[in-house]
Write a structure and sequence with these properties.
alpha/beta; six-stranded mixed beta sheet
């Protein structure tokens, strides 16, 4: 049985307490995970502080950036190991993991190394009444030890999205991947080890949230900032823990994302785009669309076209290149999603497709499968319209006017992402800018430029990461103000 150990101050550390890592496509155990004790988490945090005060913290920017490039190169060299591990942990199809998760894992390190090298620093000249001047300039320093807590849906992508800029800024990291998906994080620790990252700069602890590694990180005053991706409810709990020592937090949380499809859209492109937006990663992407509003003249045709396309999804073995939809990530998550299918029935939904569990054969029979599901007919106040399901389900409803569509899309406490489908440029800008979300895509979905701000409004998040936003969150910024006497430059 494979063993996933903790990585603390450059050493792989075993634990007495172990828990199983399950392959969601088969329901079988693939590894034993070593759960970090409170003492181990304390040791990881102390190691982080030693690293920041020691060789890691003193490394000049070009050398730090060179190490980040080496990490990216090493992830790519071990591409197949990462791919296999991610598929076993999540059940995601090889077609997805090989084009999204693993390449982005490497890209995160390269991009943030580049951003660090080219990041501008603010400076202002102030003209003083006596003719002298003051020069203000900001300097960026590491914050210290960053607690990174990540979810199970895009394990490597979302972990490295935070670890890379945190390291780029010279911090040490104590990272805790989801208990459901510890595999690629463990490989990442091996990569850090093999590229010669100074011990303590990157530490990995395995475990759960409450009463385990997650809580041990967030409640430890030695953690200087917490960056978290996961459920909004968990964000609230972590925010309470961070409040005690007034630590900064960056949160990327849940969504109940809408798409607005106007009659003048490129119909086929909108159907294609929404198939991705609804079913990518079995609907387990925080930005997946669960509410689709379609302008009335094309509503019926759109529902029919989407249903027809759903029938072409290939549900099956993640290692088969033809597979386009894998299982849900865990038995527990499947119970939750099936609970929402049942609730939708009770709330009066019409099931256009799906709503059940597909019959799978042989070794896949014990996996955590559900059918891709399209529903209509729910009232806006239905729980299925208001709560995040995080599975392969969407509801379609008609709208008449642009104002109505904007109001419907924004009628949610979440505010993560939206997409707008239209050929009219004015409508596109107007509606996209009216969305109360962190990301509004036009005629597209999940297009990412890592220099762009990313995050959520409302209960979908706190702050923005990406590009300079990440550097600012992971830095302690000091403004130096120097009086320059008697100069008269214009
Ligand atoms: P989760 O909140 O259950 O868990 C996320 C992580 O937090 C895990 O590592 C877990 O062990 C840890 N955790 C749980 N309780 C904790 C506590 N009290 N203290 C410290 N750590 C704790 O989320 P999940 O089920 O793993 O992921 C799915 C959720 O994540 C969905 O809501 C999804 O929308 C959201 N998500 C958001 C984004 C985004 O960028 N906005 C991205 C991916 C996923
Ligand atoms: O692309 C990213 O950087 C990002 N944070 C994606 C989040 C996906 C949520 O499941």
């Amino acid at each position: 049985m494979k063993q996933y150990r903790n990585y603390i101050e450059g050493a792989f550390v075993e634990s007495e307490r172990r828990f199983p890592d399950i392959n969601p496509a088969t329901g079988s155990q693939v590894a034993e995970v070593h759960e970090a004790s409170a003492e181990m988490v304390r040791a990881a945090i102390a190691a982080g502080h030693r690293a920041v005060k020691g060789p890691w913290g003193r490394l000049p920017v070009p050398e730090r950036a060179a190490l980040l490039y080496r990490i990216a190169d090493e992830i790519e060299r071990r591409f197949d190991d990462f791919l296999q591990a991610e598929m076993e942990d999540t059940g995601k199809p090889v077609s997805l993991a090989s084009t999204l998760d693993i390449p982005r894992g490497a890209a995160n390190f390269r991009v943030f190394a580049d951003i660090l090298k080219t990041a501008p620093l603010e400076s202002f000249r102030t003209d003083l009444p006596d003719g002298a001047q003051a020069l203000n300039y900001a300097v960026r320093k590491p914050l210290g030890v960053i607690g990174v807590i990540s979810p199970w849906n895009l394990p490597l992508l979302l972990l490295t999205w935070k670890v890379a800029p945190a390291l780029a800024c010279g911090n040490a990291v104590v990272a805790k991947p989801s208990e459901e998906t510890p595999a690629t994080a463990t490989l990442l620790a091996e990569v850090m080890d093999s590229v010669g990252l100074p011990p303590g700069a990157f530490n990995l602890v395995h475990g759960f949230g409450p009463g385990s590694a997650g809580e041990f990180i967030t409640t430890n005053p030695g953690i200087d900032a917490i960056t978290f991706t996961g459920e909004s409810r968990t964000g609230s709990a972590i925010m309470r823990a961070a409040a005690d020592n007034v630590r900064p937090v960056s949160f990327e949380l849940g969504g109940k994302n809408a798409a607005v499809v106007f009659s003048d859209c490129d119909f086929d492109a909108a159907v294609d785009g929404l198939m991705r937006a609804i079913f990518l990663n079995t609907g387990q992407v925080c930005m997946c669309t669960e509410r689709v509003y379609v302008q009335r003249p094309i509503f019926d045709a759109f529902v029919r076209a989407l249903a027809q396309r759903v029938s072409t999804l290939r549900i099956g073995d993640p290692t088969d290149k033809a597979t386009t939809m894998g299982p849900l990530a865990s038995a527990e998550h499947r119970e939750k999603v099936l609970g929402y299918f049942q609730l939708a029935r009770e709330e009066g939904a019409t099931f256009v497709t799906g709503g059940g569990v597909p019959a799978m054969q042989s070794r896949l029979a014990e996996g955590f499968w559900v059918e891709p599901t399209v529903i209509t007919g729910l009232h806006e106040s239905a729980r299925c319209m208001r709560e995040e399901v995080f599975g392969p389900i969407c509801h379609l409803a008609p709208f008449d006017t642009e104002e109505e569509a904007i109001a419907l899309a924004n009628d949610t406490p979440y505010g993560l992402a939206a997409s707008v489908w239209t050929r009219d440029l004015d409508t596109a800008h107007r509606v996209a800018q009216s969305m109360r979300v962190g990301q509004a895509w036009v005629n597209s979905w999940f297009l990412r430029d890592l220099r762009a701000p990313f995050g959520g409004s409302g209960i979908s998040g706190v702050g923005r990461e990406g590009g300079l936003h990440s550097l600012n969150f992971y830095s302690d910024i000091t403004n130096v103000c120097i009086r320059v006497p008697g100069t008269r430059a214009a």
